[in-house]
Specification:
alpha+beta; 58% helix; Beta Polymerase, domain 2; 7 strands
């Protein structure tokens, strides 16, 4: 089975890549700190967890089953079972994919399980292999490091989503297309996926930081409160992205509606211009034998003049109603927002300091 195991001995020595037999011996000793990280859990791994660590079969089933489970925390007395989620940065998808991290936490061991590669776990592995610092501070702080790295890796995704939202807003105003609508819906789905896994995690971190579990030492609870604060900030940013997606959708629908209105207005103008011309052409296209105007030598030019006057009158009327903007004074471009500096508190004293210099 693919796994990495580290054991910090009671004397402070770090052992890396230990075998399954050594894992069992370290667990039975109840001393030091053991960390086992399992990737791509199989049925064989489930049996290993049950036989070596004597875990309950319900959390083992959650680890083995491929489907994504909601974030939660369960207290089994001797250990805690925690499920948190992060971003699957290895997925090649136009919609953000989430990844699950399951953690067993006890006083002298930590078992982490994930069925997808997680860069945050890799980062903690490197820290342990460099100097063993995350493990030297205890099991609860090791779990804090794992969860903190998982939360930190969400922020770059939120930043990228904000950039995408800005691009979509510009496209929705300038050149709205079907692809714009698809991008808006994908952005909304990504934001809602992040919200669905981040919102329950706040309650988990809140319970870990307020002393509900004796495994978490009192001096460590402040570190979990720090993650809680980061998570609140990420949720606010994610909600901002979701609001921008909603605004972009409204802008897109308004732009499409305005384009349709402009098209209908153009068709209406064309129809209004050619309607009197069609009427005149229809009248003089009738095959009556006795039409007095047909024998007038200047009738043809009179009809052309009437048609030209009708076209000019229609265009003037449209221009008067502001349907035609040719030749009109355009609205000046909006200048950058700026406050008169003289009205700012402290500006005059700033000038005084510069003068004395």
């Amino acid at each position: 089975m693919p796994f990495k195991a580290y054991y910090l001995t009671p004397e402070g020595g770090l052992q890396c890549d230990i075998s399954e037999e050594r894992i069992g011996a370290a667990f039975e000793s109840g001393q030091g700190l053991l960390w086992v990280d399992i990737d791509q859990t199989t049925e064989e791994d489930g049996k290993f967890l049950e036989q070596t660590f004597h875990f309950h079969h319900l959390p083992i089933e959650d680890c083995v089953e491929p489907q994504v489970h909601p974030p939660k925390i369960d207290d089994f007395g001797q250990y805690l079972f925690i499920i948190v989620h992060g971003i699957d940065h290895t997925a090649e998808s136009e919609i953000v994919e989430t990844a699950e991290l399951a953690i067993f936490l006890s006083h002298h061991f930590v078992v982490s399980n994930h069925n997808l590669p997680l860069y945050s776990v890799e980062a903690v592995r490197h820290l342990v292999e460099d100097d063993g610092h995350p493990m030297s501070r205890g099991a609860d702080l090791l779990v804090h490091t794992l969860v903190d790295a998982l939360v930190d890796n969400v922020l770059p995704t939120i930043d990228r989503m904000s950039e995408v939202a800005e691009e979509i807003e510009e496209e929705a105003i300038g050149t709205p297309q079907q692809a714009t609508l698809e991008a808006i819906l994908k952005l909304k789905r990504s934001s809602m996926r992040i919200h669905r896994v981040m919102a329950p995690r706040r309650e988990i971190l809140n319970r870990l930081s307020r002393g509900d579990f004796p495994i978490i030492k009192e001096e460590v609870q402040v570190f979990y409160r720090d993650i809680y604060d980061h998570l609140v900030g990420i949720q606010d940013l994610n909600q901002n992205v979701l609001d921008r997606a909603d605004n972009a959708l409204t802008t897109y629908l308004s732009s499409v509606g305005n384009r349709q209105n402009e098209t209908m207005k153009l068709l209406a103008m064309v129809g209004a211009v050619f309607l009197p011309l069609t009427l005149v052409a229809g009248i003089y296209g009738m095959n009556f034998a006795y039409m007095p105007e047909l024998k007038w030598s200047w009738a043809y030019f009179a009809v052309l003049g009437f048609m030209g006057a009708a076209i000019g009158a229609a265009i003037w009327w449209f221009w008067k109603r502001k349907w035609i903007t040719w030749g009109r004074r355009r609205v000046p471009r909006v200048r950058p927002f700026a406050v008169e500096q003289e009205k700012l508190r402290g500006y005059l004293s700033h000038l005084t300091k510069r003068t004395h210099r």
